Amino acid sequence: MERPALLIIDMQNDFVCEGSPYRVAGASAVIPKIQEVLAEFRKRKLPVFHILRIHRQDGSDVEIIRQEKFKKLPFAVAGTNGAAVIDELAPRSGEFILTKTRMSAFIGTELDLMLRTLGVTTVFVTGIQTPNCIRTTVFDAIAYNYPAVLVDDAVGAATEEIHQANLRDMENIGVRVVTSTDVPGFLS
Amino acid sequence: MERPALLIIDMQNDFVCEGSPYRVAGASAVIPKIQEVLAEFRKRKLPVFHILRIHRQDGSDVEIIRQEKFKKLPFAVAGTNGAAVIDELAPRSGEFILTKTRMSAFIGTELDLMLRTLGVTTVFVTGIQTPNCIRTTVFDAIAYNYPAVLVDDAVGAATEEIHQANLRDMENIGVRVVTSTDVPGFLS
C-alpha cells in the first residue's frame, strides 16, 4: 500500500508576497489549493514537510552563480520575516520543517532519510516554482524511487506557459499529475 | 582561471541509432557538433567524460517507474552493443567513462569527486536528451557549484520545441548557453 507524504516547497514571504522583488507571479493563486491539500493530509495525520530555502546572512551558502544577485538584494535570510512560511500555510506542531540552500529538496537535506524512516513510498509535491525547485525535487524523487505526484493547481511558476511546458516534460517521464480536488481520492 | 571538462551524455547506440525503439529523434543531428567540441577538448588535452546509462540485465537497478517498460523491452544493458558509445564518439585512452543508472550524471556516480580531483571548475554539457539527462545534470552541476555551459547545438531532444522550452528555463537560472562554434573561444 502506498504511504504518501506532502511536500510544500518554498512558500515563504520573500517568494510569495506582493511587493517582494523575488515574488513568483504564480505563487498567490496556489495558496488556497495548497491549503486544501494540506487540510486533507492533516485530517488523515499523514506526514507534511514544509521545505524552505534558508540562507546565511553573508550569502556564503548561496549557489555560486547566484551570489552576486544575493549580495545586491538578499533573499530568504535566516531569521527574517521574508524567510518565514506565509501565514496561510503556517506549520503546525508535528509537521516537519526542512531547510535547504539549493533547488532540490533532496540536496543537502535529511528529506530522503526522513521519508525512509517514516516508511513513505510516494510524495505529493506542491509549492513554487515549477521549473526550478519543484521540477528538481520531482526528478530527484523519481531517481530515489518515490513515484512523485505533482498537484498541478497547487504548483506555480512565473508564467502559465512555463508551468505547462514543464508539466509536459514531467508527464513524459511518468510523473503522475493530478489536481487538488483529486487528492482525497488518492489518499483514501 | 576556469578549468573546463566536457561531459558527453548517453550517446549510446540504443538511444541514437536508426531503428532503435528508444532512439531520441534529435540525437543524430548533434553527432557532428559533439565531434567538433570533442576535437577541441582533445586538442587541448582537457578532461573528457563519456557518461553512459548502463543497466543490469535483470533491470533491478532501473528507476521503479520505468521497470515495467524495461521488462517489456530492455535498454542500455551492460555488455550489449546497444549500451556501447556510438562509433562516431568512441572514447580514447585517457578519457573517463562513467556509468549511471539515473538521469543526472551526479547521482550515484563518482563525477563530482573526479571533477574536484581534477580541479575542474566548469562543465560543458553535450548529448541527449535535453529535458531529462541533460537538464538534471545541468541543474545538479549548478547545485554543486560548477557553472555549467550548455552547448545548444550539441544537445538534442525528441522535438525542437521541447529543446527550446528547456533551454529557456536553463537560461533563466543563469546557465550559459553557447553553440559548438563558440567553444574554442571559451577554451582559449
List keywords for this structure.
homodimer; 188 residues; alpha/beta; Rossmann fold; six-stranded parallel β-sheet; 7 helices; 6 strands; 36% helix; 19% strand; globular
Mean pLDDT rating of chain A: 97
List the helices and strands of chain A in order: EHHEHEHEHEHEH
Q: Spatial order of the strands in the main sheet of chain A? A: 3-2-1-4-5-6
Shape of chain A: globular
Helix content of chain A: 25-40%
Helix tally of chain A equals 7
Which sheet architecture does the biggest sheet of chain A show? 6 strands, parallel
Radius of gyration of chain A using CA atoms only? 15 Å
- Shape-level CATH architecture of chain A: 3-Layer(aba) Sandwich
- CATH fold label of chain A: Rossmann fold
Share of β-strand residues of chain A: 15-25%
Structural class of chain A: alpha/beta
Distance between the termini of chain A: 11 Å
Outline the structure in words.
The structure is a homodimer of 188-residue chains. With 188 residues, the first copy, chain A, is α/β, with parallel strands linked by helices. Chain A has a single domain (4-187), classed as Rossmann fold, CATH 3.40.50. Chain A has 7 helices and 6 strands, in the order E-H-H-E-H-E-H-E-H-E-H-E-H. The first copy, chain A, has helices at residues 13-16, 27-43, 67-72, 111-118, 130-143, 160-172, 183-187; strands spanning 4-9, 48-53, 96-100, 122-128, 149-156, 176-178. Chain A has a 6-stranded parallel sheet with strand order 3-2-1-4-5-6. In chain A, helix 5 links the parallel strand 4 (122-128) and strand 5. Chain A starts with a strand and ends with a helix. The model of chain A has no long low-confidence stretch (mean pLDDT 97). The interface between A and B is medium-sized, with 25 and 25 residues.
